[in-house]
Amino acid sequence: MHEPQRVLTTASGRDVHDLCVGTMNWSAPVYGRRSTDSSALVVQAALDAGINQFDTADCYAPADSGPTSEQLLGQHLRQLRVDRAGVFIASKCGIRLTSGGWGRVVDNSPEYIVSSCEASLDALQTDYLDLFYLHRLDVGRAHLKASLEALAGLKRAGKIRHIGLSEVDAGTIMEADRILTDLSAGVCRLDAVQSEFSMLRATPLNDGVFNACRERGVRFYAYSPLSRGFLSGATQHIGEEDCRSGIPRYQGGSLEAVRRAVGQLETACKATGMTLNQAALGWIRWVSQNRQQYIHPVIGTSNPGHLKSNIRFGAAADAVFAQFDALIKLQPRFGERYPEVDMQEFQLSN
Prior knowledge:
Strand order of the largest sheet: 1-2-3-6-7-8-9-10
Radius of gyration: 19 Å
CATH architecture of the domain at 20-232 and 287-312: Alpha-Beta Barrel
Number of strands: 10
CATH topology of the domain at 20-232 and 287-312: TIM Barrel
Largest sheet: 8 strands, parallel, barrel
Order of helices and strands: EHHEHEEEHEHEHEHEHHEHHH
Oligomer: single chain
CATH class of the domain at 20-232 and 287-312: Alpha Beta
Strand content: 5-15%
């Protein structure tokens, strides 16, 4: 048995779009380049396409004194005179920046959660967040109940409308939803889980995460649905300032294996009339329909042209996506998807 999927709408009652726009690389040079000027065009392109979901975080920030992604999103929505009740804004807390660059620690303390929420509201120029995630959990989930109590308190206070967790395992999904239910007599539930999911990282299909989400009625948000650009159809050059250069998955023999897998998927695409990015997003929709599990791809880009090319899911018969699925199951084990220190500190699965 499983529960009905959570109903997620904007404050005005509009259903959330299938796609969500991610903002991580708006302010930080994640892939060795940054353009804050074009992020306003991304927001406009999203709205023009009917996309009403935006995903950000307090730690999406530049090493210098420039604006954060939260600040940029808030500015753009205000300058475009967007009706706040008509858009769905998600932000995250739990990764506290400690110094310039990428210095950071996991902080799940209730005090930090509350202060982070207030800071995010200020940066986004809004009175409430539609969805607030705990970005990462501390070692051993030592503060899980206290953290969830803080999130439930923010919901009762009207500061947030929905509660989410990012990069958690199946057991934590079940436990967190039970804790929230018990704390609030069912008023607060775990509404969303976000994790990496794509043709090149299909782990949630097999590690129990999707099963747990479906059982508890939790929505799933898939970040890096195009596998950090490798499923975009564009040639990927990884420079020294590109964050992918420090990720084992994109080094040496593992990078070669990734490129071979991409080549196989591109070959399969040629017979379908779909581009690789359309097939990658279409496969996610196919999985969503077959698993009866809402999956929202979070498309992160600072380029409006890239967003426009990614807003259409590829459409094809079940047999076509089943062929992609078979190729995915034959993929070798790639290298770790984050540096070793992050895999350990954030307790991530590959």
